[in-house]
Amino acid sequence: MRILIVNPNTTASMTEKAATAARAVAASGTEIIAATSQMGPVSIEGHYDGALAIPGLLSELKERWAAGYDAAVIACFDDTGLDAARSFADVPILGLCESAVATAGFLAQRFTVVTTLERSRVLIDNLVRRYGMGERAKVRASDIPVLELEDPASGAIGKLRAEIERALAEDGAEAIVLGCAGMTDLARELQDIYGVPVIDGVSAAVKQAEALVSLGLSTSKRGSYASPLPKPFTGAMGVFAPAGKLG
């Protein structure tokens, strides 16, 4: 089984962090392939960044199709471009937020998602509600720009831990979801510190992708995720004109 991990931002170190987390949990027969978007923002913080990251994401999905992959994981907790990718591809596509909150729901009645900035908190809160977990989850922002997670001297980890401690004390959280792909390397350490399940979206998405492929299941192509209708696209978007299916 081959699972493609696509980072929709252009920061290669974040791709490697996600790939390392994916390989740590992947089954022995699963190959993890990592890809970094070649166009768009260096980090995704809010709707504007997310919209401009989608073309690069779709390009990576298309360009790597010839080499083959059985499922793909979009390595951004905003689930950037997830609906477009599912329409575009003929294999299962997993998003970090959807995978993480589904996993948290198996483990706890109440949980808190701790993310980076306030603008991301609002976006993720909307996603959590869309995924049916609005009554069971709270979303908190820790006031950390995404790229500060790459800098050990930034104080980001202290801010993250302080917000987790508030979630446990004030929200009645029974589990914590890390709401950014840049936090993926911290899950095990934080779980040991706080004694509650700490869910990383990359790991959750990889295991769910493996399950779907093993079950022979993929995204329905009837209705909302049907392959895009062939039509001309103009200007710079011409390269994305659909031919009816991926490849």
From TrEMBL:
* Enzyme Commission designation: 5.1.99.5
The EC class name is: isomerase
Domain of life assignment: Bacteria
State the reactions this protein catalyses. Answer: D-5-benzylhydantoin = L-5-benzylhydantoin; a D-5-monosubstituted hydantoin = a L-5-monosubstituted hydantoin; D-5-isobutylhydantoin = L-5-isobutylhydantoin
| InterPro entries xref list | Asp/Glu/hydantoin_racemase, Asp/Glu_race, Hydantoin_racemase-like, Iso_Racemase_Enz_sf
Cited Gene3D superfamilies: 3.40.50.12500
Query: Which GO terms fall under molecular function for this chain's record?
Result: amino-acid racemase activity; hydantoin racemase activity
Q: Which family does it belong to?
A: Belongs to the HyuE racemase family.
State the protein's name: Hydantoin racemase
